[in-house]
Design brief:
The complex is a heterodimer of chains A (451) and B (220). The two termini of chain A are 55 Å apart. Chain A has 451 residues and is α+β, with helices and mostly antiparallel strands. Chain A has 3 domains: 151 residues; 70 residues; 144 residues, Histidine kinase-like ATPase, C-terminal domain (Heat Shock Protein 90, 2-Layer Sandwich). Chain A has 11 helices and 14 strands. Chain B has 2 domains: 118 residues, Response regulator (Rossmann fold); 91 residues, Orthogonal Bundle (Arc Repressor Mutant, subunit A). Helix content of chain B is 42%, strand content 21%. Classes of the chains: A alpha+beta (451), B alpha/beta (220).
């Protein structure tokens, strides 16, 4: 099964690549070390060989002999680990340490310098040998000179070096894996940020990925943003089409109402009643759908929009003052001129319109609209001097209003629209009894979002 | 009384004509914006019922043209759009009332009657008191030549004060005039009305005589 985790995949490949590199490095270092200690050992053996050469003679038969034995005592101990041997065609002489053994013969031995090689030797020892051909007198007869040493010390040093090197390379491997882990985590962190931002986009469809991602992530963020824009445009178009459809159905509904009146005049009262009920239900469903789409739009709206509370309240009051329900009502609007809320003015007009119209319908003389910034909230209240409703029933009206389809046009319907819009714009709504004695609707929005 | 109904949907238009005819009005029907504008501009109607969604020239444009040409008959707008911004726009364009479709015919007739009642009975068109000028035919007011937007209630309040001919009107009498009946609580409503009105007119138009009532300032 292929690795699903990007992090594991990156880590595994980094670990493998680093391991390979370190293994190669270890092999190379081992080779260098071996050559180094061989060269050093060969140098010390050359010194001993020169001592030997100084004492090398040939007898008249051409057999070599050494008149003074080299000083190192290991030459004299049998299997002592240090050996010499001189060979001619006529005979051979070797160090006492070789006892009854001899060093293997060599061919094509150079005359101009020492050749170094490793060979299996007597006494089951591996040997490091240096050898060359020399001519000790004027006769021109050549002698093969060999000096050898047991290579177990070399092997020990090599093994020890190898052990230490594997240890340190292993440690280095771990450190590099840790570094790679850090790199992977650091490299993948922008993806975690993208995930967090996508989560925010899910909760708030109006949000977009930020523009300060690393260059490699930027194209991805841009692609996601343009996808989100395209989807938002689609949704917006669909919503507009639904709203247009709802609006365009209203005139035919009015035409149906005309038919119903005609039917009633012709004496078909039952048919007219049925038509009227159907028209009322269809009208309520249309209003509910329009209100729902308005709330959905408000929920996704950009935070850049601002609604001036005083302007909206005055504009709505100017409308209601001209209607039959509002023409006897005085609006007391007490809102600071610069008070603003962070959403579309049309949404605020919808909220205040429904509340103020409702208040005007139930008021005796006065409707009060007030706005204050209190603590961390912008508070707006709409109250009237009408009979009011008991607080217990206020809650019920809201709950019932919460189901737009069932509420129908009327008291609960307007409040339901408002309640929906207020929550869509992050506000809260409470019903109670106001200072004028009638129903008061208190709205509040967090001040951070409001200013 | 003659009314103009502007409605492009034949069913709704016929129904409006019939219902208003039964209610005792003489009704003309226009089905396009151009036709509506021409008729409204050339004939004297007591009131107009205007649908906003019209072919060629939309209802709001028709209304704006009438108002800028000085046609001041009351206009009730019919709209399929029930948003408040649309209502505000309609009132801003010069409408006197609005009704959203689908509507109950009984309510429409009642609204038309209310519009006619409000507009009725103004013989002499202009009343001047100090800096204030009231135009009784358009139910509008000017202060120092600047037009101010009045609600019908505010207009009736100013008109009542203007008819006192310099005398002080007691809050109780004002309330009785505005509301038909009055009780002790209504003086608060009058006070609120004056507060709101002063915000539009500025100071020095409506004056308070503490303990007595209100009077229009006669200083020019």
């Amino acid at each position: 099964m292929p690795l699903r985790s990007l992090r594991l995949r990156l880590l595994a490949s980094a670990a493998a690549a680093v391991f390979l590199a370190l293994a190669l490095a270890g092999f190379g270092l081992n080779l260098l070390f071996e050559r180094h200690i061989e060269r050093r050992e060969a140098l010390s053996m050359e010194a001993k060989a020169r001592e030997l050469l100084g004492a090398l003679r040939l007898d008249k038969n051409g057999k070599p002999f050494v008149d003074t034995l080299p000083s190192d005592s290991r030459f004299n101990e049998p299997a002592g680990g240090l050996y010499w041997q001189v060979t001619t065609a006529a005979g051979q002489e070797h160090s006492p340490s070789l006892w009854d053994q001899s060093l293997p013969a060599a061919t094509e031995t150079p005359r101009d310098g020492w050749r170094v090689r490793r060979i299996p030797g007597p006494f089951e020892q591996g040997l490091l040998v240096i050898e060359r051909m020399v001519r000790p007198d004027q006769s021109g007869r050549a002698v093969l000179v060999q000096v050898a040493t047991d290579d177990s010390a070399l092997l020990d040093a090599q093994r020890e070096f190898g052990r230490e090197m594997v240890g340190s390379l292993g440690l280095l491997w771990l450190v590099l894996i840790a570094a790679a882990y850090g790199q992977v985590v650091l490299g993948l962190r922008p993806l975690a940020r993208i995930r967090a931002e996508l989560d925010r986009m899910r909760r708030n469809p109006g949000a977009r990925l930020s523009a300060d991602h690393p260059t490699e992530i930027d194209p991805l963020a841009n692609a996601i943003n343009s996808l989100a824009d395209a989807r938002a445009a689609d949704v917006d178009r669909a919503r507009r089409r639904a709203a247009d459809l709802a609006h365009s159905l209203k005139t035919p509904l009015a035409a149906l109402a005309a038919q119903s009146r005609r039917a009633r005049e012709a004496g078909a009262h039952e048919a007219a009643d049925g038509l009227d009920r159907a028209i009322a239900a269809a009208g309520a469903a249309l209003e509910a759908e329009l209100a729902r789409s308005r709330s959905a739009v408000a929920r996704e709206a950009q935070a850049s929009e601002r609604a001036n509370v005083l302007d909206a309240a005055e504009a709505v009051a100017a409308v209601i003052e001209r209607t039959e329900a509002g023409e006897r009502i005085v609006f007391e609007i007490d809102v600071p001129e610069d008070m603003e809320l962070p959403f579309a003015a049309s949404d605020l007009a919808e909220i205040l319109g429904a509340l103020m119209e409702n208040a005007a319908r139930f008021a005796r003389r006065r409707v009060a609209v007030s706005g204050v910034v209190a603590g961390d909230e912008v508070r707006i209240s709409v109250g009237d001097d009408g009979p009011g409703i008991a607080d217990a029933r206020a809650a019920t009206a809201l709950v019932r209003g919460g189901r737009l389809d069932e509420a129908g046009p009327g008291h609960g319907f307007g409040l339901a629209i408002v309640s929906d819009l207020v929550s869509a714009t992050d506000g809260t709504m409470v019903l109670g009894t106001g200072p004028l004695g009638g129903l008061e609707v208190r709205l509040a929005w967090p001040v951070l979002a409001a200013s | 009384m003659r009314l103009l109904v502007v409605e492009d949907d034949p069913d709704v238009g016929d129904d409006l004509v019939r219902a208003l005819g039964e209610a005792g009005f003489v009704v003309d029907l226009a089905v396009t914006g151009d036709d509506a504008w021409y008729r409204g501009d050339t004939e004297n109607y007591a009131a107009v019922i205007l649908d906003l969604g019209l072919p060629r020239l939309d209802g709001l444009s028709v209304l704006r043209r009438w108002r800028s040409a000085g046609r001041n008959f009351p206009v009730l707008i019919l709209t399929a759009r029930s948003e408040w911004t649309e209502k505000v726009e309609g009132i801003d364009a010069g409408a006197d009332d609005y009704l959203a479709k689908p509507f109950a015919m009984g309510e429409l007739v009642a609204r038309v009657r209310a519009l006619l009642r409000r507009a009725a009975g103004h013989g002499s068109p202009l009343i001047r008191v100090g800096r204030l000028t009231l135009d009784t035919s358009r139910m509008s007011a000017h202060v120092d030549g600047r037009q101010i937007r009045l609600s019908p209630l505010e207009y009736r309040f100013l008109e009542f004060l203007a008819h006192q001919q310099g005398g002080v009107a007691a809050a109780h009498d004002i309330a009785e005039h505005l509301y038909g009946t009055a009780d002790s609580g209504d003086t608060n409503a009058i006070e609120a009305l004056v507060t709101r009105l002063r915000r539009k007119t500025g100071p020095g138009v409506v004056e308070t005589r503490r303990g007595f009532g209100y009077v229009l300032s006669e200083e020019g």
